[in-house]
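Support reply, case 0932

Customer input (verbatim):
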Amino acid sequence: MHLELVQKRAEELGLPDPGLILSEAQDILSAGATNVDQDLLKEKKKEFYRSIMENEPEIWEFMKANNGNMTQDQWETLSVDQLEQARIIAHLQAPKQEKGFDYTSGVGSTNNDGIKFSRWKLSSLDTNTEKEDYLNATVGYDGWTTDKFGRYALTQNGLDILGLDALKPDEKARIIDEYQGFTKYDWVDAAPHIIQTIPAVGASVALNPYGTVIGILGTGLIGTTGYLADEVLEYSQGWSNQSVESIAGMAAEAGMYNALGEGVIRALRPFGRMLSDPQAGLFSFRPSAPYTRAGVLKAYPGLENDIRAMYGTAADGNPLPEVEIQKLVNKAIKHLRFKTPMTGDTTIPNAADPFNPNAKVSAGMENERRAIIQNILEGNGTYSGVPSIDMSTKQTITCSFSRNA
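Our regenerated output:
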C-alpha cells in the first residue's frame, strides 16, 4: 500500500520514485565499471533528493535529522549504496506518519445530531469497501481521505459536516484513529470485536466439564456464530458487500482462532494446577472422559480401603463377603468414571466428574471423600458436582485458582 501510494504521488508530480532513481544510479555504476560518468551520477543523486523531498518528505526529514543534519554538498558525497541504506533505515525507523496529517486529535463522535457517524460502526465493518461506503454515506466523497499508509482521515469538509474543530493551517486531514496512547475510543474500536467473542467464551465455559476434543471443536463451531451474527446485522443495515464465499471463509477463520484459543487455555491448565494445588502433583494432566478403571483407582488410590472401612462389616457384625465389597467398588468406579451424561452413562442423571471445576476445595479430606462414596452407593442416583479426587486441597484460597484454570 505504501509503495503504491508513493509511486502514484511520484507520477502526479512528474518525478520518478526515489527507489527507481537509485536503481538507475546502480545501473550506471554497473555499466561504467571503472569509467563511470560522474556528472550523470551526480545528476541522478540530485534527482533522488528532489524526488524524496517531494514524495517522501517525512522520510527525508528523518534521514537528515539522523545523519547530523548534513548539508546538500555533504549528501552529494555519499555513495549510491549509502543513500539506499539511509533510505531503508529511515523507512524502518521513522514514525509511520505522513506530513500534513493530524495524528493526535482523532475523531471520536459527531457534534452534529443530524449525522450518524460512529467509530463503533466503522470499526465493526470488515472490508475497506464497506468502511469507505460508510464514510461516503456519513461525510461525503470529499469528506475523507487516507494517508499513504492507508489510515482513514477526515478532511476539512468532513470535519465541518460533523461539527468538529477545524484543521490547523499546515494540516490537510485528521486521522480518525488517534495516535496518543490509549483512549476511551480505543475501547469503542475494540467493542464490536469483543462482543463477537461472547458465544465462544460461553461455549468454553459450558463445555468445560467435557473432554478436550469436544471442548475445542464445540468452542470453535459455536464461536463462528459471533461473526455470523455481526454479518447479519451489517446486511440488515445495508453495509455488507461481501460474497457468501468471503463470509464463509472469515467465519471459518473466526472458528479456527476460537478453537485454537480454547486449545491453548486447556493446555495451560496443568501449569495453573501445579502453581495453585500442591496435592495435584507435577503437571497432573486432566484426562478426557471417560476414565478407565485404572484411571479412577490411580486418582483415588484409597477408594477400596475407604469402602472397606465404611461397609466392611455387615449388620450382623460379620465381615462383608469379599464379593460384595468388590460389587461396591465396581459401582463406585462406574459412577466416578464419567464426567457427564454425554460422555458417560446416560441412565445416571448428572453423572459425576472426578475433576468437576465446581468441586468443594476441601474435598481432599478423608471424611469428605467418604461422603462422596456414601452418596454414590446409598443415594438415589441424582447426585451432581462430585468434588475433584486429585485436584482438591485444604488450601481453600489458592486452590480456587485451579478451579478456574
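We compared this against your earlier run and they match. Two observations from our side: DSSP finds 18 helices and four strands in the chain. The chain has a mean pLDDT of 74. Please reopen the case if you see a mismatch on your end.
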